[in-house]
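User: My instructor asked us to take a sequence, write out its structure as C-alpha cells, and then describe one feature of it. I'm not sure where to start. Here is the sequence I was given:
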Amino acid sequence: MSALSGLAAALAYGWFCFAYVAFIASGALPSEARPGRRAPIRVVVDRLCFFVAVLVIPALILRLAFKVAPAGVGFVVGDVASWAPATLGLSAVGFSVGLFARKSPADMASYPQYLPQRWDVRAALLEIGSWTLYLAAYEFAFRGYLLAAILPLGPLAAVAVTTALYSVAHLPKSPKEAAGAILFGVIAAALALRYGSFLPALAIHLALALGNDLGALRAAKKAS
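Assistant: Let's start with the prediction itself. The C-alpha cells for your sequence are:
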C-alpha cells in the first residue's frame, strides 16, 4: 500500500468526513437512541449513494487529480492464496459473533435494515448485494485511502488513527458498536497493511453484518 501525499491525504479525510456526516444527517444510519428502519427500497438507495460518495468519487479524485491508482490504496485483489485462509477463519468467527450475540430491543427494531415483506431469492440478493457495496465503500475508506493517508507517520500510527476514527464513526449507532469497532478496526487495518488489500476486511465485515441480520431476525421471531 502506498502512502498519500499531504494534499491528497487532507482531501481524503475532508471528503470522507463531509460524506459521512451528510449520510448521518440524512437519517440513513440507525441508532440505539432512535431505532427503526426505512422502507426496503430506501435502504438500498441509501447504500448505493454511500457507495458512490465514499468509494467511487474518492477513487476518481485520487486517480484523476493525484495520479494515485486505486490499487495503490488497497483496491486490489492481491494474493488470494495468501490472505484467504485467515480471512475465511475470521469470517466464520465474525458470522458467529453476529449471529449469536445478544440482541437488544433496539437491535431487533433496526436490523436487518433491509427488511422486505417476504424473503425470496430477489430479496436475499438485494440484501447481500447492497450490503456488499456499502461495506466495500466503508472498507475502501478506512482500510484504503484513510489508512494510506496516515502511513507517512508509520504503520502503528496509521492503525491507531484509523481505528480511533472507525470507533467514533460508530458512536451515532451505539456505544456498544463503537467499543466493538476498536477490535475489528485493529484487525482489519493490520490485514490491509499485511496484504495490501481491503478485501479481507470486506469479507469479514460482510460475514459479521449478515450474521447480525440473521441473528436479529431469529431473536425477533423468538420474541414474537
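For the description part of your assignment, you could build on this observation: The mean pLDDT is 94. Try explaining in your own words what that tells you about the chain.
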